[in-house]
Design goal:
The chain is mainly α. About 55% of the residues lie in helices and about 5% in strands. It comes from Cyprinus carpio carpio.
Length: about 800
């Protein structure tokens, strides 16, 4: 079916439209209706019809109607609470249900995050070997109790055996290297295959990051099953497998999806949230805060992330509940202690040297790199994902995942910085060099005492080991950049936070070591002379890695405030906020110069979700009449009359059109607007009437007024549908600027808006009409962006 045919299905014959006025009393059905009843969205005197007010899959909720329903429910509870102790108890339960649901969500999110962290670490080490004394220990835990480890080789102990030692009986030599290489690749492919197979068979919605869809759902879109129990279970299992496979992805984004699944499932235990889609989204906003809280160990950052990045509607009480959910989740994760270091994340670091003013220049350069990387990544990844959608390659997700996993494993193994877990890599890059560090990045010639057995200060001449590590890091940077482009969007759970931070951390560490060596060899330059004394620590390469990580993540996501707070909570260094802010703002400015969309908004647009981004400005001078339907030369809009249609005529209109709702007018001659009725509500009301009322026939009169019209004595029983009629639909005049209309849709979360001229109905504007119009103004194909 063509796009024009789809649009024309919402019209009926032109003979139905005539332009005449009628008196105002007719709009209330001749009976006056009562002013009080017209103020309510639904006629509350009628018995509620089961199913009315619910939504079909892939439809947008009516925020205004949901808020009205909640206010009416609240008024009803308050009016009854003084009647008896039971009603008072019910009112207390209703008041506390919000705190209870976010508590349960926080508990579940923290527990699942702890399980995912522990399982992913164990499986990741399984690729290299196994602990003979206790199979369930990872490499680090296996060597904790060993008395035979040395300082230089603290990760080697008799209890831990590599696959070459187990299979060939030898730890060194080319044979053992090839065997370890083969087993590393085998396990990586096995984990990747198992992950993509589980997603494809049991829960297709468990793939990807989940944040673009969470943003769309929080804006009011319905995606049934996306936050269900099957999705939660499969996402939790496959996230562990995907991270352990070594693919260039992280678990932080998917943890937001996992937390939102928990919030959605627990909200069904409380009628206040299960029966109101708008209230449910308040729980999901709090859940997303809990997800970031356990992903980064950053409760405050999680709340700000929910506010800045994902939430569409964020009242003050949601802020408090988000804070509480993030607190509970962080507390549970801290109790589990998945990394054994009493921290919520693997790469928690503390720096002991201050930063100096001249360092702002390299920090800003890292911000520029982050912005350029973000703009390049968004364009390249979207181009690849679009190609995947439009070619046969996208029809074989299992083959694609296996191919990417094989290339990743084969290329990653020879380089120690790509072989290790990405979180461990970030930890090593963030860490400040000290006497207890055995990393190759810390192999400096001691300035203070050449006879020392360990490297002392970081401001010493770098040995060939450091330069070798820099070459390996440079290769790792190129590898990570290329593989992340092809990995994000695969049909496995895949987060973008950790790969982006790794790319920034590698670039930052390289820059940090370069500045450090520059300060050592040229300490008499005017830049360094005032701050850097000979032999003193003044450059911290780990700090540059942290700033680079924040800059690259900011360039990809365009986050600002929440990102700075997340990274600050990661490091615990209050004095490093200024460098972070400078780098993050620079990366945002540079990225915005190439396009204002972050990666999540770009994927929303790629998938065609009906999402009106509050950050996007509408600057065109069009009017409502230029966007509304029907357009010139289109068939007229399908409308219902308030009291002179039969049931057969109503069903005929419903069957011949595909609209989601119909304006109700006084008469064909008048065209004066009475209200708006949703297609789903009409269908449910008709089915309910036929089931419960006798005498409803095809020639029964259908009326939306307060009182039944005068009918002949032999007429069948009429059908009253006033209870499903929205008596106060939002209307604008045909001369309203579209800039105002777009603002109304964004701020009130409307599904549709009726267009009138002198009180006479002219047409309708829906959310999709606005998205099509915005695409048209941006010289894009208006139909290609819509969700299919």
């Amino acid at each position: 079916m063509t796009a024009e045919e789809t649009r024309s299905r919402c019209r009926i014959s032109a003979a139905e439209v005539h332009a005449h006025w009628s008196n105002y009393a007719m709009s209330n059905g001749g009976g006056g209706g009562g002013a009080s009843s017209s103020t309510h969205l639904l006629d509350l005197l009628e018995e509620p019809i089961p199913g009315v007010g619910t939504y079909d899959d892939f439809h947008t909720i009516d925020w205004v109607r949901e808020k009205c329903k909640d206010r009416e429910r609240h008024r009803k509870i308050n009016s009854k609470k003084k009647e008896s102790a039971w009603e008072f108890t019910k009112s207390l339960y209703d008041a506390w249900s919000g705190w209870l649901v976010v508590t349960l969500t926080g508990l579940a999110s923290g527990a699942l995050a702890g399980v995912i962290d522990i399982a992913a670490d164990w499986l990741n080490d399984l690729k290299e070997g196994v602990c003979l004394s206790a199979m369930w220990f990872n490499h680090e835990q296996c060597c904790w109790d060993s008395n035979e480890t040395t300082f230089a080789e603290r990760d080697k102990c008799p209890q831990w055996k590599t696959w070459a030692e187990l299979i060939l009986g030898q730890a060194e030599g080319p044979g053992s290297y090839i065997m370890n290489y083969f087993m590393f690749t085998f396990w990586a492919l096995s984990f990747a295959f198992l992950a993509v197979s589980l997603v494809k068979v049991f829960a297709p919605y468990a793939c990807g990051s989940g944040i673009p869809e969470i943003k769309t759902i929080l804006s009011g879109f319905i995606i049934r099953g996306y936050l269900g129990k099957w999705t939660l279970m499969i996402k939790t299992i496959t996230l562990v497998l995907a991270v352990a496979s070594g693919l260039s992805l992280g678990k932080e984004g998917p943890l937001v999806h996992v937390a939102c699944c928990c919030g959605n499932i627990f909200s069904y235990l409380f009628p206040k949230y299960s029966k109101n889609e708008a209230k449910k989204r308040e729980v999901l906003s709090a859940a997303s805060a809990a997800g970031v809280s356990v992903a980064f160990g950053a409760p405050i950052g999680g709340v700000l992330f929910s506010l800045e990045e994902v939430s569409y509607y964020f009242p003050l009480k949601t802020l408090w509940r988000s804070f509480f959910a993030a607190l509970v989740a962080a507390f549970v994760l801290r109790s589990i202690n998945p990394f054994g270091n009493s921290r919520l994340v693997l790469f928690y670091v503390e720096y002991h040297t201050p930063w100096y003013l001249f360092e702002l220049f390299p920090f800003i350069l890292l911000g520029v790199f982050g912005g350029l990387w973000g703009a390049f990544f968004i364009r390249a990844n979207i181009a690849w994902c679009r190609r995947r959608k439009s070619t046969r390659f996208g029809k074989y997700p299992v083959l694609e995942v296996i191919t990417v996993a094989a290339i990743t494993a084969i290329v990653a193994f020879p380089n120690p910085y790509t072989r290790q877990n990405t979180s461990e890599l970030i930890k090593e890059l963030f860490t400040d060099c000290g006497p207890l560090e055995s990393s190759q990045l810390c192999q400096y010639r001691s300035q203070m005492n050449s006879s020392q057995a360990y490297p002392a200060g970081s401001d010493a001449a770098a040995t060939p080991g450091v330069y070798s590590a820099m070459w390996q890091l440079s290769l790792a940077l190129i590898f990570k950049i290329i593989m992340t482009i092809f990995t994000f969007g695969l049909k496995v759970p895949s987060g973008l936070f950790i790969p982006s931070m790794a790319i920034g951390a590698i670039a930052g560490r390289i820059v940090g070591i370069a500045v450090e060596q520059l300060a050592y060899y040229h300490h008499d330059w005017f830049l360094f002379r005032e701050w850097c004394e000979v032999g003193a620590d003044c450059i911290t390469p780990g700090l540059y890695a942290m700033v680079g990580a924040a800059a690259c993540l900011g360039g990809v996501t365009r986050m600002t405030v929440s990102l700075v707070v997340i990274v600050f909570e990661l490091t615990g260094g209050l004095e490093y906020i200024v460098p972070l802010m400078a780098a993050v703002m620079t990366s945002k400015w540079v990225g915005d110069a190439f396009g204002r969309e972050g990666i999540y908004e770009a994927h929303i647009r790629l998938n065609g979700y009906p999402f009106l981004d509050a950050k996007e400005e509408f600057t065109h001078t069009t009017l409502a009449r230029e966007v509304m339907r029907p357009r010139r030369n289109d068939l007229p809009l399908a409308v219902l009359t308030q009291d002179d249609m039969t049931l057969a005529e109503l069903q005929n209109i419903i069957s011949q059109t595909s609209c989601n709702g119909f304006p109700v007018i006084v008469s064909k001659e008048s065209q004066r607007l009475v209200g708006f009725a949703l297609r789903r509500d009409i269908t449910i009301a008709i089915e309910n009437a036929r089931r419960k009322q006798e005498g409803i026939m095809l020639n029964s009169r259908v009326y939306f007024t307060q009182h039944a019209p005068t009918l002949p004595a032999d007429s069948p029983r009429p059908l009253k549908l006033r209870s499903i009629l929205d008596m106060s639909p939002f209307t604008v005049t045909d001369h309203t600027p579209m800039e105002i209309v777009v603002d109304i849709f964004r701020k009130l979360g409307l599904r549709q808006c009726l267009v009138t001229h002198n009180g006479r109905l002219l047409g309708i504007i829906t959310k999709k009409d606005i998205l099509r119009h915005m695409a048209q103004m941006a010289n894009q194909d208006p139909e290609s962006i819509m969700f299919n």
